[in-house]
Batch of 2 targets.
Target 1
Amino acid sequence: MISLPADVPTPQADAWELEFWAHCAARRLMFQSCAACGRVRHPPMPFCPACRSTEVRWREADGDAQLFTWTVVHHPSHPSLVPAVPYIVAVVEFPALDHVRLLTNLVGVPADTVRIGMALSLVWEEPKRGVVLPRFTAAGDAS
Ligand SMILES: [Zn+2]
């Protein structure tokens, strides 16, 4: 289920995001959480926004994902995305992980079937060798 062109710009990780993308490269969706108070956060950052602790642990998303919001993009934001339009940009949340949210895409989901709160399944795309991106499809449709 590849939907991204190979020449699509890929994430340019800052120092705090490197570990998140390393987990993705291993096809594990992991979110940073506070080792002191347990709050889950994304994107990764150097301290907890709730208690200011710098102690971190990583928690894996267990597949309990649901759609928070979405939009259909008809005008590509980069020339490489011209063949990919229309595509769906989505904010996915993980209720079991403090409702942490991830900006991503829905793939293989017709826009007329998308509903806020729908259950989603994680799928991985590798548009470039070694660049592995988390995407989502309707629950039960992952392949
Ligand atoms: Zn904390």
Target 2
Amino acid sequence: MKCDNCGKHYRRKITKTQAVWMCAGYLTLGKEYCPSKQIPETVLENQVQAVTSDITTIKEIIVADKNTLRFVMKDGQTISRQRKDRSRSESWTPEMREAARQSAIRRRKSDG
Ligand SMILES: [Zn+2]
């Protein structure tokens, strides 16, 4: 997993609340060196699952910016994935909340 800002690799870090991935340039040299953002591991896992069910088919993951991941596959194709930033709760509409709730219920049911 590589940072597109500075070319360094991402590292896994455990915070109080969750596991996140952060650019090594950002970690060791600060945000002046690399303004990349941390990515929660749950987000990363979701994006990986959206691209492939077999993680071994991924050659490399490049973090283009905080919302864009570029997956370089072993067969040579590149897949870009963008995620909506929903960290600000005020951006949630009641419809979005309801949709998220419904899909969470569906997911729980399908987990059986
Ligand atoms: Zn970086």
